[in-house]
Batch of 4 targets.
Target 1
Amino acid sequence: MSPLAVARACITGGAGFIGSNLADRLIAAGAEVVVVDDFRTGRHEFLASLRDHPRFSLVEGDVLDPGVLEQAFTGCDWVFHLQANADVRHGTEHPRLDLEQNTLSTSGVLEVMRATGVRQILFSSTGSVYGEPEVFPTPEDAPFPQQTSFYGASKLACEGLIEAYSTGFGMTGVVCRFVSILGERYTHGHVVDFYRQLKRDPTHLGILGDGKQTKSYLYVVDCVDAMLACVDRHAGESGCFVYNLGTNETILVDESVRIITSHLGVAPEIEHSGGIRGWIGDSPLIHLDTSRIRSLGWSPRVTIAQAIGHTLDWLDDNEYAWRDQGTRYQEQRGSSR
Amino acid sequence: MSPLAVARACITGGAGFIGSNLADRLIAAGAEVVVVDDFRTGRHEFLASLRDHPRFSLVEGDVLDPGVLEQAFTGCDWVFHLQANADVRHGTEHPRLDLEQNTLSTSGVLEVMRATGVRQILFSSTGSVYGEPEVFPTPEDAPFPQQTSFYGASKLACEGLIEAYSTGFGMTGVVCRFVSILGERYTHGHVVDFYRQLKRDPTHLGILGDGKQTKSYLYVVDCVDAMLACVDRHAGESGCFVYNLGTNETILVDESVRIITSHLGVAPEIEHSGGIRGWIGDSPLIHLDTSRIRSLGWSPRVTIAQAIGHTLDWLDDNEYAWRDQGTRYQEQRGSSR
């Protein structure tokens, strides 16, 4: 990326997994970075190396508070809106949460961008907006999908808002539909869940679904590269541009499990809860067509297996990031609903 | 429709154009009908013939108030959620309005349905969710669209919510994507706008855009028939079902104008504002594929020209419905923005 298309970026959710990796990269590339985070799921540890950097600043607060956003956005040329409720599985337990944390927060971000004169936004959407697609690998212009999760529905609503703002006000929108992201600072999803279970009890592993769900993962460093390739390509261009971010690879849940058990040197008894989906809204098959992002010259540098390896190495070295939380499997088994 | 798949229906926005026509039909077919309306755009006149009917009741209030909805929904087997901000053109002047009036109101409707045990919803969506499509006539599974209006974005968000609720809670969702509807009680859109201008000044007519915009219209009686065909087909079925409601016909804006000037016996000087779109978010070409709704045995009974004729006859007889409002053309010309 040279010259850098970003002078001063605000990253919402910048203390989170992907946001803090992006912050590191932008600082290293010479940009100014303002992180907004309320530290509900973000972590101060993830910003430790940036805290005293002269081009870094932190606004601690809720993105639903316009005053917080005004303070953070003023003087920026890009907003990377990564803050979100990222939990797909629990959608039906609180259907308003995704609406509030994702859709309403994005609406607020866009309004404060208008008010503060910031014209460019990159948004972290999700492959979940394809619901259960009929076309694989799934391209950006796949048939008009139906939503199967509150998470996907809320992100789709955000995409629509960003497109309407881009059309209505001549802004620049970049919508990145992510597969699941792995790597350093990953704290939420299959891999950490299995890892956590096995650290507590190496003899038993519970898997939601039949284990044959086919997933796609992208390494966070590759993900940040891809976001910046989009920014480079579309900076200053009016309109909204949509990209799948993923790899051409897929992996079975059971295969991920084999990599994890091998890494840990354990041989647990494996119990599948059964069914082709791990939960309502879980997509049995995720495989995005990434031709469009590859046409920008980007390609991922590591395989899914390597990305899982990097993740496990990081979890080994950073017990604080996974030790204090319950496992999703336990939550489901312990729930009376 | 026999036997009627609806025992007791709540119609949000039931004092509006389409809602009140639907209410008439359901009462005539033997159903109980509860109308919710705050009369911001709905009209008491449209319910005059139902007011004293033993199977009709009215809950006057805001759909954003859960208490109002609870009162209205209790005991219903269907909700027809027609209440909306229906103004596409002014979206950029108040980007939160569509979000609040459409997306948040739909979220509230779905939550109160859960709370009151109503399991079936028909939702009035719009062909605007296709943005500016590349496929004509545009089918329900057209390529994943980009939104070009706040109105379309807000309705797309509603569709996603209804799909997520249908998937997550096994409810029945019917999403009808309407073209513009014409007929008795029509008070908003091209036809009434041109009519109103010509009633005030028969010598001059201002048209937003180049007049070559290609539109599709559906007669309100045909629209109500189509909604009830969907209800008949899907009552009791879990999932979400999407239908375009329109005709196989299209009409140029200039052609509509000729029908209106001929009806009124006037020969105005016509001034086009120019451009292929009348305003930001106006789609230059609307033509929906209606094969899916036709596969249920429905077809429209009147042509677009006849629908315009019925509309003009009704406007002739109901001056109260159009006399007191400004014209959209005048609003735009008088605006300094």
Note: The radius of gyration of chain B is 19 Å.
Target 2
Amino acid sequence: MPVTAIREEDVKDTQYLGKPRKLLEGLGKISGLTRYTGDITVPGMLHMRPLLSPYGHAKIISIDKGAAEKVPGVVAVLSAEDLVTRERTITSRSDAILAKDKVLFVGQPVVAVVAETEAAAADGLEKVVVKYEELPVISNHKKAMAADAHVIWPEGLPSSDIEEITHAAVEEQKSELEGAPSNVYKTSKYERGDIEAGFAEADVTVEQSYDLAAAYQGYMETHSVVAEPNPLDGGITLHTSTQGQFGVRNKVASILGLKQGKVRVIPMTVGGGFGSKYGTIEPLAAAVAYTINKPVRLMLSRSEDLQTTTPGPAAAINLKLGAKQDGTICAIQADITLDAGVFGFEFGGLWPLLLGSNYKVGNLLMNTTEVITNKSETGAYRAPGAPHTTFAMESSIDELARKLNMDPVEFRLKNLSETGDPMVNGQPWPSLGIRTCLEALKEHPAWTERSTGEDEGIGIAVSSWPCAFSPSASVCRLDTDGTVRVQVGSVDISGVNSSLVLVAAEVLGVNPDDVELIQGDTNMGPFAPGSGGSQVTYSVSGAVEAAAQEVRTQVLELAAEQLEARLEDLELKDGAVQVKGVPSSAIKLAKLASIAETTAGGHGPIIGEGRSAIEKNAPGTIAHLAKVAVDRDTGQVKIKQYVAIQDVGFALNPMMVEGQIHGGVVQGLGMGIFEDFGYDDNGQLTGGSFMDYAMPRATDVPNIEAILLNNPSPHGPFGARGVGEPPITAGGAVIANAIRDAVGVRVPQTPIKPPVLWKAISEQS
Amino acid sequence: MPVTAIREEDVKDTQYLGKPRKLLEGLGKISGLTRYTGDITVPGMLHMRPLLSPYGHAKIISIDKGAAEKVPGVVAVLSAEDLVTRERTITSRSDAILAKDKVLFVGQPVVAVVAETEAAAADGLEKVVVKYEELPVISNHKKAMAADAHVIWPEGLPSSDIEEITHAAVEEQKSELEGAPSNVYKTSKYERGDIEAGFAEADVTVEQSYDLAAAYQGYMETHSVVAEPNPLDGGITLHTSTQGQFGVRNKVASILGLKQGKVRVIPMTVGGGFGSKYGTIEPLAAAVAYTINKPVRLMLSRSEDLQTTTPGPAAAINLKLGAKQDGTICAIQADITLDAGVFGFEFGGLWPLLLGSNYKVGNLLMNTTEVITNKSETGAYRAPGAPHTTFAMESSIDELARKLNMDPVEFRLKNLSETGDPMVNGQPWPSLGIRTCLEALKEHPAWTERSTGEDEGIGIAVSSWPCAFSPSASVCRLDTDGTVRVQVGSVDISGVNSSLVLVAAEVLGVNPDDVELIQGDTNMGPFAPGSGGSQVTYSVSGAVEAAAQEVRTQVLELAAEQLEARLEDLELKDGAVQVKGVPSSAIKLAKLASIAETTAGGHGPIIGEGRSAIEKNAPGTIAHLAKVAVDRDTGQVKIKQYVAIQDVGFALNPMMVEGQIHGGVVQGLGMGIFEDFGYDDNGQLTGGSFMDYAMPRATDVPNIEAILLNNPSPHGPFGARGVGEPPITAGGAVIANAIRDAVGVRVPQTPIKPPVLWKAISEQS
């Protein structure tokens, strides 16, 4: 199965770090014993079902709750005006708790029915009668930008007064909009050199328009929350499936008009988030529970989840590249149009950076246009934007290499950005390993010994993700049974705890099985950023290391007294402190903890805190290769080989990183050839269930060879880089390039479903 | 109502410390919203009822579980041999999970019935048939010490391999027992000077035998626990009403044969503990849940709780005092006999120290004999021993003053121990305020302006409690809404959190309402000692102070950068840092926290840990006065006035300390004149319900004037001393002395119930 390329020399000085070790979460998840939000009950808990809008855009004429209120077991039937919340402008999907006056997208919650059982709530829901008056529906970005388009927000997109969660490290460049009201709510422009002169220099150009589908994050566990008012302090406690408890807390506090500290958010084990779980339904559950002053559970059905959460956006990219005969890229021009849903898209500013920063170029022009449509707010989906931009750029790069008759690896190597080269926004790249990844691919047998049969082809692609980073803290303490307990505020969405235990184990010389991770809620803390942007391992490891170091210091000082030895003669090994070279003169950590906790006038219990505030990001980069076989008669693509090479900086726990790569590749393939989160002209979902929305199944997925390169980042702990997002970015691009290699057609759209490919092949011949 | 004697000058430099402030726990408790262990449910939770032994001593011939197992809803019927535990010697009440072969006291659990409902468990219990063969019952210490007594443990009291919870700071002196097997399991002897010479010097002597009843701790919430096995790691989680989660964890881990870390103990709000809640029924609940691998709740009924927990012991004290005509005490001799129940009594070693250390004396002899009886193990009840020893000593002192015709205040002042004087064990008293208390009483109008009508009398008594202390730790962090969160491992049984918030508020210049206490469980930590021995405020305040100081340092450093000011020019005030004298140049703590949590390359989140390991104890001392009216015809005593003066060192939160004094005084009065935890000759409880066991009611309790003296201890934080235990110690003694003053009879026993007093009065006349 997977093979890693971790070099012996990278881990020769470590006992645990950098060496594969079991995932802590594994047993609980495969045995079904892990407790999720849906398993939580609190005394007196009620159940909520939301009534969702069936229309993409409509006025609410009336809501008749009478019949619903009479259903046995129904406790409350609430519409917007019933909710006790702060007076505010509604500016986001999560803040649009229940629709007032108008519905803006199919799936917008309109009424909440609360009952003693799920079934009674569902029964009540059927009796609610809402009368609507339909309004024109803007179902995609083309309709949104039409000259005579109905303008969804005639006074402009309402702007937020809620502090938003920062996802990525790169700041975006916005421009103010002028002119008549329209559905365009944001544009940005990046320019470098002279684009016209650039194309004038070019010997060959490639121009292509790409049509890129939206995708749903496809987590196994739908959005779920239990909201429990605390009548004692007028606050509320949430148990929820979230990627970031502090962000959810701040959002709910703002909407309810409470001090942050009155909202306690307890993050539960997350059954998949992938960017979606930053607080979409928590405000609804919280506001309802707060209003009726009773605990309420809301678990979305899959159908509700598909309709009412925040999928990734659809987009169009027009990309024109120019290169000289010697293979030097001399011009990159792009127009990006983002179909951002009804409240905009948080990450649009990233797109031009993701699209144009991987290659050196003197002349560049990038325009981004973000438009409003009658769909749920679009949100983050693992490396938001990068699968789309990589699809466009790597498809066009492939075509350009072909036009130049150059080897696609050599052509890329000639042009790839290096550390210090400017990104699209002019900022220099921090330590960048994209070239390292491609050089590793160049030497890999999948490339050096490549061969293809009839209708088979090989495609490659490279990509990068800047990776976010944030300050964080940790507390570490030594218990009297020798257990090292590490408290962090980060949510483990990806096995990160299975790396963090190794950090503490390494510092303290204890077996990782004797390290326990404690997950803090918003009250307990300590602070950590939300688990997104590939930032948690990078941001939190340093805090854990610092806290463990403080414990190490205390342990050694106490041991020096107990062993009557000098500090410099001591070493920590196998859960004990011993005099170097004298294993008989040793004292166990458990014993030291007991001494510390019982000695009057002594050291006091062994506990340390650690903080981390890294200065720079550590981009993660990849080079992927796929070999496909195309069935010309059906357009079916069979993936025969997949190699995923990734610069991970330093893999703290390679097994966890491999898992991340496997998952990311599968999701990238899904976006590339399976998944289309489409809407019809009325704004209705065309894939409103897993019967219609095609995610890859096990039989669709090839053996994935994950290769981890340790190319240390100079900025983070142990040289680590963010690893979660890069692997999702290239799946579509490598398959598109492999198809091009196999059957000679360039398909400029995602997903490349069989009918699409069949049609392209048909039109070619 | 109560008046404190806190001096203005003691609190002139503090903003919050030392000034009365509301109790954090109050609203929840009076509104019924506080959640106790009995309010906890976990998925799949079952209910347990224990079958208790009806015999004080018997062989178990057979247990027939068949009929019980057939009761609908019954899931398991377990006896000792069914339980999955470590092989071990049973050495304590808590370890005697279910009786094997023999029962040793009425109330010993024999069988556990587990069912889907409480009712089904109770139904099942009725169907269990246990056949016993009765054995001789040793129901009190006199019977135990009879020459022909049946020896309960012919091979000696089994000795523990379980680490016990240390309650008090004073180490005990044991002596090895020799000779034939008997029910005496421990004796100790303290000797100073020459006791015979001492009495030879004496001009007057007083000798008296005191018969002192056992008492039940009388908490409102019976022992309750929810035990939930964790099949993932083979461990178990307990939610429980306990005074010390770490001790319970270690006990349960030892009995189940698990690593401590596999047992997670989550301490719930405690509805009263008073020394009883250190893990009596947790091992039973844990072993049953662990055996059937299902979550189980066990809540004792009041009747079960009275029978099967660990009340304080009964005792006999023979005390002989000698004094010279000038009022100098020259000899103290005592024989203490402790009726210790079937597994012994942890705190017997303290008794001679408590009895004889308050007065200077050159010649002293104290013998203590602890004997086994067929009763539940005796345990701690708030200041274990001190109400009994104070009753004896202060009664005899009163008689001695009368014989000398001396003023009882002056006589005591002449003889009271001072800082540095030897205690019974020869160790010097640390800073001791007993004289200060009595001097304050001497000046109090209740003494200076005392007057009594017919059959009215005034009694006084002094007492001390050494107060325990242990290392502890705390974590403090600043949140982005300006809330200061303080994490501690101590259980709040007495409002201690309402003091700890003031410590953090004072250090950080924030309103105490903006300080939140976070209660750690055994996994979270940090470590703190169990809440007993009056040690928590004394032991934990320093850790909280240190953690808050670390936060203060971080806050000031960051503020200095932000305000471009020098550190020494800054002050913390009203939740902000400001340049001294320039309120316009200020930055809020909330803002600083946000900056810290978001600034790349900055300070990192604001968080600090603090540790404390005090070197010496800080005794708490009291002087109490009561005025009573005696009804000669009924023996009824009406308490007309009560003054409780206490050296509290420094009252961090005087309102909390007053509450402690009120509660302690009421319990002391209960032990003095109401409560008799008696057993008949068969070892059956004579007061097996609150219909029979008389605790004081509101109408029995006088107005209590609590006077707090700030006589700082040099060893602990802010000069604080332990305050919880001293106020319970003197209730019986002052009433006995007041009765003597009123009607001229000395009643040498507790409780002085009306029939007892009536009889004494009758015999006198």
Note: The first strand of chain B starts at residue 46 and ends at 52.
Target 3
Amino acid sequence: MSADTRGRILGSAMELFATKGYAQTSIDDVLRRSDAKPGSLYHFFPGKEDLLIAVLEAHRAGIDALLFQPAWIGFDDPIERVFALMARYRMLIVASDCEYGCPIGSLALEMHKARKSVRERISANFAAWTDAVHRCYLQAADRFESGTNLRELAEFTLTTMEGGVMQSRTFRDVSYFDRSVKQLRQYVQALMKTPSRRVAAPKKRVGGSKAHPPGA
Amino acid sequence: MSADTRGRILGSAMELFATKGYAQTSIDDVLRRSDAKPGSLYHFFPGKEDLLIAVLEAHRAGIDALLFQPAWIGFDDPIERVFALMARYRMLIVASDCEYGCPIGSLALEMHKARKSVRERISANFAAWTDAVHRCYLQAADRFESGTNLRELAEFTLTTMEGGVMQSRTFRDVSYFDRSVKQLRQYVQALMKTPSRRVAAPKKRVGGSKAHPPGA
């Protein structure tokens, strides 16, 4: 009944829910993958939904260390951080042969009649993602036209990621994701002061900051 | 074994897959909802996946009559047609107390290891949607800055719809969808020639066409 066992069960469930979906994952699948005994699993997670809630809380707790921080290594410019985050998703799409689905987005659509406790934890993940992107835009606030709603832009960035991931996965073609991100980039440019060109190369705009991680 | 029975089974499956999800819908659910006999169901659809493929083909076959045509009643301006389509989704979101999920998008994310035959039919639905929106933008091509990639804009419009629906459903709040659509509207404006303002009221831009359906 160690914390290690709990972590192993949780990690297995995270992986299975992300790759097979919640409904398609059985408790037996989790037991097999984690090499845990039924008694241990039921001790920590009395029901499958308790496991789901713990998975969603783990995603939320790890969003900074597991998603943002690795994505932002070598990127100081706040706008480039937003697109470095998108590049992180691109990497996950390519590494999975375009089978990647955002684990939170997939659960959000799979949970048709989700209980409030589940929905609130999916919402918390979306909100944490949007908050972080919003902070990036706020750090570059002086580059946007006055009156630009940066919170809405952050929500729209999540919209772009989720819609782009969905299409790249369906068509098994990362270029669908790329084109959505390109449209977002053009929109961000259009919202900035004195946009000289519609599509500017990142380097042109981020003067001084590193557009690529060192050694990458 | 009439075509009527087949249609009743198919309609029930469409509704169940959309509201409960594919994995959570059992053949028994479909039999109960359609009041059909097991023999009839298996005669038309030997397996559950055959039923899924038929559902996806029915969505594809009905996209014009059931989605675009009703959305576009009273809208002649091609750009307003795009946003009238978005308004149609808004209506579905509100009518379902924000439980609405795009049936195709939900299946796209639920089908983690979907067979090629299923994925191809989900793709065909996305492609038909994008094609129709692309045609709208092409009809207004002279209003866009030269060099604007209208195909990519149509794909980005699907991205916006899917990402917006996902968030409004998760937060059970249509304003998430509204804000994504507002951002898309601002982007479309920015891509047009001589944008006078970032956020223009529809009426200002569509000179001559009806911004609202008659009697609506």
Note: The domain at 62-205 of chain A is CATH 1.10.357.10 (Tetracycline Repressor; domain 2).
Target 4
Amino acid sequence: MKKESFGMVHPQYFTFAEPPHRLKLQSGKSLGPVTLAYETYGELNDDRSNAILVCHALSGDAHAAGLLPDDPTPGWWDGLIGPGRALDTSQYFVLCANVIGGCKGSTGPASIHPETGKPYALDFPMITIADMVDAQRHLIDYLGIDKLLCVIGGSMGGMQALQWASSYPDRLRSAIPIATALKHSPQQIAFNEVIRQSIMADPAWRKGYYYESGQPENGLAVARMIGHITFMSDQSMEQKFSRKLKKENLSFQFTEDFEVEGYLRYRGYNFVKRFDANSYLYITKALDYFDLSGERFMPDVKKTPVRFLVISFKSDWLYPSYQSQEIVRLLKRKHAYTTYFDLTSTYGHDAFLVEIDDETRLIKNFLAHIDRT
Amino acid sequence: MKKESFGMVHPQYFTFAEPPHRLKLQSGKSLGPVTLAYETYGELNDDRSNAILVCHALSGDAHAAGLLPDDPTPGWWDGLIGPGRALDTSQYFVLCANVIGGCKGSTGPASIHPETGKPYALDFPMITIADMVDAQRHLIDYLGIDKLLCVIGGSMGGMQALQWASSYPDRLRSAIPIATALKHSPQQIAFNEVIRQSIMADPAWRKGYYYESGQPENGLAVARMIGHITFMSDQSMEQKFSRKLKKENLSFQFTEDFEVEGYLRYRGYNFVKRFDANSYLYITKALDYFDLSGERFMPDVKKTPVRFLVISFKSDWLYPSYQSQEIVRLLKRKHAYTTYFDLTSTYGHDAFLVEIDDETRLIKNFLAHIDRT
């Protein structure tokens, strides 16, 4: 079958927890009203059994596939979503929502606080992966979907897939957590903490209340540069940059000598144009708080009805394969039907966005065998 | 034999390249006068054949062993240097000098520029590992040492050991490069670039001219936190911190929740008290510029007379073992007598400072077989 892009899409919005109702959060606090920005690809079938929820990573958004008006950039998982692709939009109804706490249309720290008329800033409550999933469940209810065929995502998206299975095992038939973990290791927390410290060390951050004065651009750019190093592998950086110089000779000055330096600066300072620093703080904290290890996963479920496909990548040192293997061991203890692949790739953590062919082969086959009755 | 600390030491200073003379630098620029702060442990023997030069790493200094007056902290390699220790001060004359560009007594960006009467700041010329070694050679000349028994160091100290062998193969009998590389990979350059960007993004940096207004403390602290993550291993962080909380419960605020966060903040902000931000910039650049790969190593020497002991650590991901194996392959091509050990350790890059027992066994045996005639 011909594989093609889904084509034009348009952003959609769903608002719930309108006063006096509020979304109850894991912290004990609550939030409302809550808006989710989302996109859909394909058609929901008559018995509403063909819906697949795609969950995005730290700096992702609802634009997973196709093209938006006035934006030439295809969605972040465009290669995986479309007619004939792994998430085949001629068969499945695929949807993706921006997480709460984000800055791409869903309610987050840059949104207007209804009580003050100003952006929440640090008055926004701390949110967790479970809270993100609870908000998505409201969207699924609204769309009239009783049971998702699958929840799929990489990195933080994979945590959401695991959280869906743990929080609402009766609301999904399968889950595909990719390049993810049951909980952050201290090294992962440490990288996130330095990212947060970098943002908060920038005087322009103003303890979070910068929406009138402008973003803490330098702090956020440095934070993103740290991220980019962890997304790539030693080997992929060697292949892409080696020690190639930007000019013929070393400058013997504090300018960009090596191509890798220019790349990092470009990616760092480009990021500040499209992402809110406070969202980066809230979402990294949600990542660090996430912990479904041991008895925290499906606490009331002896034998899970959810089927799992777990995927990791050998060169991913941010979410190393041993963390996916911990997921698999936990799922086996819950007697889950679980398939696991540790894929060869040199792309490091970025592999989940890049290794489309390998992922397509595994995901297509896995989805074809999910019982929808 | 009883192993004991060397005891009290005192800082010494040597100044050369006094006007009109200057130290010629690799950049084409020059520097003078140049002061080196150094310490010595043990006695130089009559034929001056027992001198061992210890070279320090990025944030190290001349205080390698023993105790200084008014400072309770033993030198950074105290476990390796002293009577009966690996660098046995009852047999050897051990010395260590702060590198040029540093901030612990040797001439660096915080030193007074003789032409302006103010700190050099960014008028300090860019320096390289070869320049550091050239300055050390002046000190060795001054001490009347024709041939060093050994040059030893870890990380940047190991680069200096390799540079000594390449620049002055007739001035040393042996070299022990530990946990080091012939050149930085793009990943290593990337970490250093983010470290530099973090410092330079701090408005208090003032393009380097901050000596009257005060250090860019926040930028330097974040820079050092990045460093600390790379010095440890995933495993050593798990052993030391796991996901241990500072308080009983998660705070759901942007405070320190996990012990690893508190550790990083403490190490980061403690560092700004003892290290100059501009020195960090200059020295990281020297690390990135270093490249003795291929024909750059001992270009005029067909068969090196220097003996080598190369050591790496399996969990060191900042200077991975494959980089030490590249050193060994290059040395074999120069027909060098080379011994190589890839030691098991969970401590990551920090292992070269921690795994004293294993290092002692290898170094003692190696030094005992160096021909001094």
Note: Chain A has two domains: 12-183+291-368, 188-286.
